[in-house]
Design a protein that fits this description.
The protein has 315 residues and is of the alpha/beta class. Mean pLDDT is 94; it is low at 4-15. It has helices at residues 27-38, 48-63, 128-145, 181-188, 217-222, 224-236, 255-260, 297-312; strands spanning 2-4, 67-76, 82-92, 99-105, 153-159, 200-203, 250-252, 266-269. Strands 2-3-5-4-6-8 form a six-stranded mixed sheet, with helices on both faces. The protein has a two-stranded antiparallel ribbon with strand order 1-7. The protein has eight helices and eight strands; from the N terminus they run E-H-H-E-E-E-H-E-H-E-H-H-E-H-E-H. It starts with a strand and ends with a helix. Strand 4, helix 3 (128-145) and strand 5 (153-159) form a beta-alpha-beta unit.
């Protein structure tokens, strides 16, 4: 994904439950799900590790009673490479008309092109945070929803081919459409005819050490009510310090095609490190150090419990 500058916009607080609701998110479980994905190795496109991990993710969702759809497509990377892509879609209570969409990307960056050591720029990224953490939070939520009486449906979408965006070392004038390829495909080829949802929440890099989730500009533009809902929920469950009500800049990420093409209001929960010289996405972004040693259970807990609060506040 890429970032741009923005100006802060005022927002109205959306109504949410005044007290914590729903089950307790288990950070140790989410951490394990993150670790298990990494045990396959980097899940780069067209690799055996990618395919095996995809089967594992789909199997976990099925274990938790979800209806799983695999949306396969041949997509074209920035350099013309044909990418064998699979969007993994898991539906909780597929019969429910009223639905909420949770999403994250599950592929790994093929190149650590932001690593401080230039010798690593063509090495793959383990993607413990930038990929596995979002899927891990969704898997833990799916586990907690087993047999629950939540009154709405929930769709978990693991988008593929998000991180094949043009590397920094490549010669290219414009890379805006080279990111989020799986999400772009899904948004124009919905897995179910007429599919819609009340709103969507994208989880991207939600397990990093020292992470704080500022309000991303494209989210406040397309879905200000959802931003207010989520940030109010974080405060209700005691994690408001992780969710500053301040501007975090604009991001090109999976939520853009969900908003622009699928017409579902969708926000991006993504970290912003205003004082990090390596990247505003944090020190491990697109480096070989995006590994389990830099995953923080406290960050997973803050995000996971906030999403639980949001879901169980829906009527």
């Amino acid at each position: 994904m890429t970032a741009c500058n923005s100006t802060k916009k005022s927002q109205n607080e959306a109504a949410t439950a005044a007290e914590p609701v729903g089950p307790s998110f288990v950070a140790d479980s989410a951490y394990l799900f993150c670790e298990q994905q990494c045990q396959f190795g980097p899940r780069t496109m067209n690799s055996e590790a990618h395919d095996r991990c995809g089967e594992w993710i789909a199997g976990k969702f099925r274990t938790y009673g979800m209806e799983v759809t695999l949306q396969k497509a041949d997509l074209r990377g920035y350099d013309g490479t044909v990418l064998k892509s699979t969007n993994i879609i898991a539906a909780y209570k597929p019969e429910q008309k009223e639905r909420v969409l949770l999403c994250a990307h599950w592929d790994s960056r093929p190149w650590a092109d932001n690593d401080p050591d230039e010798a690593n720029h063509h090495k793959p990224v383990m993607a413990a945070n930038d990929g596995a953490s979002g899927v891990a939070v969704m898997l833990e939520i799916a586990r907690l929803l087993q047999g629950d009486s939540l009154g709405i449906g929930v769709d978990f979408i693991c988008f593929d081919a998000e991180d094949w965006g043009t590397p920094q070392w490549a010669e290219s004038d414009d890379d805006s459409d080279t990111w989020a390829l799986g999400a772009q495909h899904w948004a124009t080829h919905l897995h179910r005819e007429g599919y819609t949802a009340r709103y969507g929440i994208l989880l991207d890099m939600v397990g990093g050490q020292g992470a704080k989730f500022y309000q991303e500009q494209m989210s406040t533009y397309f879905a200000p009510e959802v931003v207010s809902k989520v940030w109010a929920a974080a405060e209700t469950v005691g994690y408001g310090s992780y969710f500053p009500k301040e501007d975090g800049g604009g991001i090109t990420d999976d939520h853009l095609p969900v908003n622009q093409k699928a017409k579902i209001p969708c926000i991006d929960i993504i970290p912003y490190y205003p004082d990090c010289t390596a990247s505003s996405f944090g020190p491990t972004w697109h480096t070989v150090n995006d590994d389990m040693q830099h995953i923080d259970r406290n960050t997973l807990q803050a995000v996971g419990q906030t999403i639980i609060q949001v879901l169980f506040s829906e009527k």
